[in-house]
Fold these 4 entries.
Entry 1:
Amino acid sequence: MKDFHMNRPLILIAEDLDSNFLFLKIVLSKKYDIIWAKNGEEAIEMFQKEHPDLILMDVKMPGMDGLEATRIIRRTSPDIPIVIQTANAFESDHIKAKEAGCNDVLTKPIKITHLINTVDKHLEHLIYNESVNNQSEGHEQRS
């Protein structure tokens, strides 16, 4: 399935609320391919199956929460960027997220510019490599 997403980075959004997922999808799908998990267990399964380039992980989800799912994913993949989304703005919550293995924290309500900047920061190497590859392919075709 990953072959389908070779042109654009793939983001796994782990979010149980439809409205929150739709907001994230609308903002990010202009530049990225999106897949959706509705809880921590699904997030782990989809991570293992799809190998996304970044995970946006909600903290509070039914069943397994986002922090536990992050800890499990970190056991096999220390490198994938995981950005946690939380309604809790307390510093202690941000510390717990970092201790679980998150690279960044977005506090809800999420501002569009902050979301885009955070995701772009973690995926800029993929976007840069894609544009370089596309330019070199164009040069080869002209030669």
Entry 2:
Amino acid sequence: MASSYEPKTPLGRFVNELEETVIALLLGVMTLITFTNVILRYGFNTGLIWGLEMVTFLFAWLVLFGASYAVKVTAHLGVDVIVNLFGPRGRKVFALVGGTICIGYAFLVFKGSWDYWANFANLPQTTGRWFPTGFEEMRGTSYRGWYEVIDIPLPEWMRFIEPIMNDGDAYEKIPRFIPYTIMPFGMGLFLFRIVQATVRIYTGENKTLIVSHEAEEAIEDVKHMNAGD
């Protein structure tokens, strides 16, 4: 099962509660929009035109944001059959190697996420194929903040971004850089959590990046509960 995570500082507790609240809100809003759309479609032969697209974006936010949270609480699944053939020192070495590989992977995805999002946010993409070596020079055709989503209308209270991102021209739908923001943010947070988890393994605070034997542990928990009864 996932290891219990207990924040040690007031800031840690605040961040942990904030992450859990965001995840709960994303799930709640997705459920509310889907439920409302079903009622409108089958009860009144109408629906929220933007509902499906909104739920799709919210699901992406949930996945990308939840991935880093799962790293923090050691909730990602994995297979450790071969690793468990070694002693504690060998398992630690394998865990550190796995953490290093994950850091490299997360860094590459973070770079790609930034470059993709920057394409819609009027920001420069990075240079370098694998690792950033700088930022590209912005030209007139590089500013693409005018790209919009397909169905979700722009709320009136967000009109202030038009002179900043769209040269004062009006948006009909929300610009793509807003929902796509989760890509660099989520992957940056994922990279940070992977580094944290690897450091915890190195210092001995944790033993692995993954949760394993969850079925066996669940059975053992049930046996202990029955024995207590």
Entry 3:
Amino acid sequence: MIACQEHLPGWLSLPQARVLWLVEPEQKRAAKVAAQFGIPRHTPRLEDALADAEVQVVDICAPSGLHARMTRQALQAGKHVLCEKPMALSAAEAFQLVALARQGQRKLMIGHHLRFDPVALALVQALQESDRGQFHAVRAQWLRKRRLPARPGFVRRELSGGGVLLDLGVHMVDLAWWVAGCPQPVAASASLNNRLGRRGDVQGEWGSWDSRTLDVEDFAWGQLRFEGGLLVSFELSWLALQPEEEFQRVQWFGDRWGALWPAGRLFAHRRGRPWEVQLAPTHVEKPHRLVVQRFAQCVLQGEAEPVPPEQIATVTAMIEALYRSARQGNEVPVELPRS
């Protein structure tokens, strides 16, 4: 879905790019998609595409549990890599990939498309142009009512590596942290369950699943603590008992500013009175398309990745700590490699 709806149209919109290979284990599907997008070659083996010296970039849209292995293979073959989130399932893997990319002088970027969301970009720009002060708390919510993605790449842990925390939580944690200025994470606490997904009488909009074998979480709640006192809390669900079909909201609370996404509002006090700004986004380009365009630009121009992989490796460490906290039932430290 993400390849056909976002990444492939993004690459094909660039006059300086050609898509040479499609790697897909199901060859009937591969032939259909290759014909649809005019891709000359398809294969079930990543190694076939990596052996082609003409290939400069590999774009990974595989299930989450395969991201780190495929990224490593591509970097070792001397390719630049754009990969869908999550970067990896452990901080150790993520930072190893960063080191591999830096040693080989290859570009590595993870497709955190909310960093290219027009409202998020407007928020960051407005805060950078003012005295942002310090944020002390963030509340992040992404709650769906009946939208469990009932496909193996999401609901089979051997392929996905996790559930809603890896699917939606990676985005919410990163957006909350990025807008707040990326302070150093200290500790994590989380609670995960799949009580609704395992009930058997709950049905979703996006297909059916075997409630007896569902082994990933459909609900996640937690918080992260950071140096300087910032606290980020989050609520995530694929199957929330709520009125809205889907609900997204991130709210930042600070000593100079408050901010709200996706509403694009900033709050402050001026001359002793409440003051509010409604931001006007400067572009309307689809965020996923911007991911592809900006990555292509950084490869062609030799620029730094617009989403630094070191930052996303740190996000991976936060997510790993949240899963560890949920297993242990207590707050745990966020473990980062020593510099």
Entry 4:
Amino acid sequence: MTEHALQVSRRLELANRIAIEAGALGLTYFKRVSELTVVSKGHQDMVSEADRDVETFLRVEIMKAFPDDSILGEEGGLAVGLSGYTWVLDPIDGTANFVNGIPAWCVVVACVSDKGTVAGVIHDPNASETFAASLGGGATINGQPMMASRATSLMQGSVGVGLSNRVDWRPAAEFISALMSEGGLFFRNASGALMLAYAASGRLLGYVEQHMNAWDCVAGLLMMSEAGGRVHHVDSGLMLRYGGLAIAGGAGVYDDIRRLAEAAFTAEAAPGLPR
């Protein structure tokens, strides 16, 4: 095993452990959600004390194991290290679900290097499911190999569609309309990371969102690639700084999903999408 492979393996092992432990911590808050202090960060964008405390736990555990690594979290921003590895954290993806008592949220832990995203874990504590992947090492669900959909038609399943308050909602509605006009269906559970995990495990045909932050998508996009699917590539450095477009799909339907996304998301609305 090369030194880089060893470093990735160690980080994937840590990501698995702390994502599961963070999920257990999140569940303790979820069981008393009516008592939580919730603050609005903007339209349909909320944060609770659970988000902050779970992210703090993740940061502390990472710093214990890899004190020279950088950490980028949704709530705590960027802490710069010198190792060349950057951890990307979403302590609770699906906060709107979480604070309303809907069990569709997850913990996301990823690690990025100059080679791109090298490790990623998405843990759903409500379903006791842990989705994981490493660059070149495949993708698993609860330790068993997982594969993206083998469908060859949009009529054979549903495509996850994400929405956010960062961009105009109308292009997403246009995508949904075009998808349904071709016999497809859309799925949304308000957790982009969890929908990407569902796509990587073959439950969804794919996933599309006009703009995602890095903490929501880099783990799931890695899983999709490692599970035999295809993804629209956005440079990892740009994704960390600005976020970007997410298009993912099983190999047999990716071209159709991308075609519909290209028609719906203009170059102005979705920078980085080749025209």
